[in-house]
Design a protein that fits this description.
With 409 residues, the protein is α+β, with helices and mostly antiparallel strands. Helix content is 30%, strand content 27%. Strand 1 and strand 2 form a beta hairpin. Helix 1 runs antiparallel to helix 6, helix 2 packs across helix 3 and helix 5 runs antiparallel to helix 6.
């Protein structure tokens, strides 16, 4: 028979010590007639710096205890506060309670984290129940900044949009179109190699998807240079001058990357490519496939991830969409056993028949989506749209949108 632990968890100890400290501070302020919700009045009443009273006010009124941690005063600020309360004739027991609860709070930090910066990362990673902040928000931002320097490059937006509709002649098969790329890419080192895309498709077991049932790829060029090696670029949405694109065949498909180029804003560029495929994959579940999955590989630092999925109205009742954010690249074998990050964002619907596709992240995104509908001879009024946005996605990672394939009637 296993023993039941009665030791409070980290979350319980953190909440208890923080609540004790901020209640003690609030009671001390109230005891001298100072309103904790009015930091400017507090600064005038106690004759202390407004930065201190602003932090105290934020600490006391915060509903999110995780977000309140950075507002906890340090030892020097606590001494200043106690000295000001003594001058204001606060009862001695109020001063002693502030000292006692502050010592207890510092002991809790030392016990679980060792220091405050580490505690802040622990809280960010744990994301306590009821927290208003996104999971790993601080850690993802710090990682983005660090990885930008390490990789020597960054993008404003990593983007992909996927379109699915039943094939007109064989409705048990799906037609597929996509756009993918980077918006406002910059290098920080001239020799930085920029990994772009891995084009691949595979069954649930990781084997390459069989297109022998009549798949016919339609290249969406819109004025692209057909002699240029690489993915089918949508030239109207790309920068005028692009460096050479390297293409390597790998077991999972084809990998595209940029070589060396100019650094900073002078070398800023946008690259978008697109393609369409008739009878790309089965619409229904079979012995090889239970899931329809679309992924976006974060293979270089990006400030934002933007992933759209557009589903034809004939499939709307079949699709119960879910998202995952996985550690590592998009190679099929890796996805099957990848570690899953806490999901920072939910999928949100863009509306239907037609969906609303614009976004401030990419000024001409809605225009581009409309062109894909036109090329594939689809009516946007027959589609419903879904969107996943993630700020500072980890590098490397893979965003996944998927749904379980329906049974064929």
């Amino acid at each position: 028979m296993s023993e039941i632990s009665t030791t409070p968890s980290f979350e319980q100890q953190y909440r208890a010590s923080l609540l004790d400290l901020r209640n003690a501070i609030a009671e001390g302020l109230i005891a001298v007639g100072s309103d904790p919700a009015k930091p400017q009045d507090m600064a005038r009443d106690l004759k202390v710096n407004r930065n201190l009273t602003w932090k105290l006010s934020k600490l006391i009124v915060a509903r999110d205890l995780e977000a309140a941690f950075p507002k906890v005063p340090g030892p020097g600020a606590i001494k200043i506060l106690n000295a000001a309360l003594i001058k204001a004739k606060a009862p001695a027991e109020r001063i002693e309670r502030i000292k006692r609860t502050f010592v207890a709070f510092e002991r809790m930090v030392a016990l679980h984290a060792g220091d405050r910066p580490t505690m802040e990362l622990m809280l960010d990673s744990a994301t306590l129940p009821g927290a208003a902040s996104e999971p790993l928000e601080l850690s993802r931002k710090l990682a983005y900044q660090g990885n930008s320097g390490i990789w020597g490059c960054q993008a404003k937006v990593r983007v992909r949009a996927i379109f699915l509709a039943p094939n007109a002649e064989q409705p048990h098969m799906l037609d597929h179109a996509q756009i993918s790329g980077f918006h406002e890419m910059r290098r920080f080192r001239p020799d930085a190699i920029w990994p772009l895309f891995l084009r691949t498709s595979f069954a649930d077991d990781g084997t390459p998807l069989d297109h022998s049932s009549g798949g016919r790829e339609e290249m969406i060029n819109f004025g692209a240079d057909t002699e240029r090696e690489g993915p089918p670029l949508l030239q109207r949405y790309c920068s005028a001058e692009l460096p050479a694109i390297r293409v390597d065949q790998v077991p999972q498909g084809y990998r595209y990357s940029f070589g060396a180029g100019p650094v900073g804003n002078s070398g800023k560029l946008t690259l978008i490519y697109g393609s369409g495929t008739r009878r790309f994959a089965p619409r229904y579940r079979d012995e090889h496939n239970d899931w329809a999955e679309s992924f976006l590989s974060i293979n270089a630092p990006a400030e934002s991830l933007l992933m759209d999925l557009f589903i034809h109205r004939d499939m709307a009742d079949e699709v119960k969409l879910e998202s995952k954010l996985l550690l590592g690249g998009s190679e099929a074998s890796f996805l099957r056993s990848s570690i899953e990050f806490p999901s920072p964002e939910d999928i949100h619907q863009l509306g239907a028949y037609p969906p609303l596709t614009g976004t401030p992240l990419i000024p001409r995104h809605g225009e581009l989506i409309d062109e894909i509908f036109t090329h594939m001879k689809w009516d946007a009024g027959d589609f419903v749209g879904f969107r996943l946005e993630i700020k500072h996605p980890p590098t490397p990672s893979t965003a996944l949108l998927r749904y379980r394939l329906p049974e064929r009637e």
